[in-house]
Structures are given as C-alpha cells and as structure tokens.
Design brief:
The chain is an all-alpha fold. About 75% of the residues lie in helices and about 0% in strands. It is built from 6 helices and no strands.
C-alpha cells in the first residue's frame, strides 16, 4: 500500500494533527471540569494544573498546525484549476461544482472548512492562555472555568465539524 504525496499530507492534516487535537480536547475538558477545590486537595490542584496547561497548549498548537497544513498544503490541491478538457476527478473543487448533486459539499462544507475552522485555533489559544495566566486560581473561579469550558467546546465543535466535512468531501472528491 502506498500513498501519493498529496494523500500523505491529507492524512497528516486530518488523521494525524486533527486526531491529536480532538484527543487533547477530551483531556483539557476533563481537566477544566475537575479543577474544583471540593474535589481535590491543594496539592492535587497543582498536579492537575500541569496536565491542564500542557493539554490546552497541545490542543492550541495542534489546532494551528491543522488549519495551517489544511490551508497552505492541502487546500491548494483541492482548488487547483483544471486545464480545459481535463478529467475533473483529479480537480476536487471543480468536480463537486460541476455536479449539482455534489455542489453543496463545496458551497457549505468547504466554506466551513475555509473560514469557520479558523475559529478553533484562535479560541483554543485564548483558553490555553487564560489557563496559563490564572493557573491554580481557576479552581476557585467557577465562572471563569465555566466560560473556558464553553470556549473550549466551541473550538472543539468548529474543528469537529470541519473534520467531518473534510472526511466526507475527501470521500466524494478525493485529492489525488
């Protein structure tokens, strides 16, 4: 089994970086949720905080790497313009737009990936910064912790929907 260079980068973008991002979310969410003084000791808060800081920064970095590789490595192959008379199956954007039954994959799915997915690294970085800045004080600031959980979830949902669209679009019109 072999992968072309384009297939390799598509796998790195989605299955590699994207998967690490999604896994980091679960750890970060659990860390934020459980960072409560009534559940752990002061020493436990310090110990959990190290993992929380690492997890939120890993999520933010993976989000940035995922959108950067998607935007600057994979997406140019997706939108490559075909020469006249070319087989459109090798030009995913044009293949999707040429078929009215498939055009929405581009019009909505890729638009989400191109624009909304960028919210994910921005919001994930904001969460990671607040976790680093406030540190153990977060255990005692329930409102801030709840706001971070909401923002963290927004980053996850934006990336998750983008990942689903990417997987479905690549199934219908793969980058070859």
């Amino acid at each position: 089994m072999t992968l072309s260079e384009k297939e390799f980068w598509t796998v790195i973008h989605g299955m590699g970086l994207g998967t690490i991002f999604l896994l980091a979310f679960s750890g970060g969410l659990a860390g934020l949720w459980s960072l409560r003084p009534e559940w752990v000791t002061v020493a436990g808060i310090r110990e959990r905080l190290h993992r929380l800081i690492a997890g939120t920064w890993i999520m933010a970095i993976m989000a940035w790497l995922t959108v950067i590789t998607g935007t600057y490595t994979v997406y140019p192959w997706y939108r490559a313009k075909p020469p006249s008379g070319a087989d459109l199956t090798h030009f995913p954007r044009y293949y999707l737009l040429a078929d009215p039954n498939l055009a929405e994959w581009h019009k909505f799915g890729m638009e989400w990936k191109e624009h909304v997915a960028w919210l994910s690294p921005i919001v994930a970085t904001a969460v990671a910064y607040v976790v680093l800045r406030y540190g153990s004080k977060l255990a005692y600031e329930e409102k801030i912790r709840q706001a971070l959980i909401i923002l963290f979830t927004i980053a996850f949902v934006a990336a998750g929907v983008a990942g689903l669209f990417g997987a479905f679009i690549n199934k219908v019109a793969p980058i070859r």
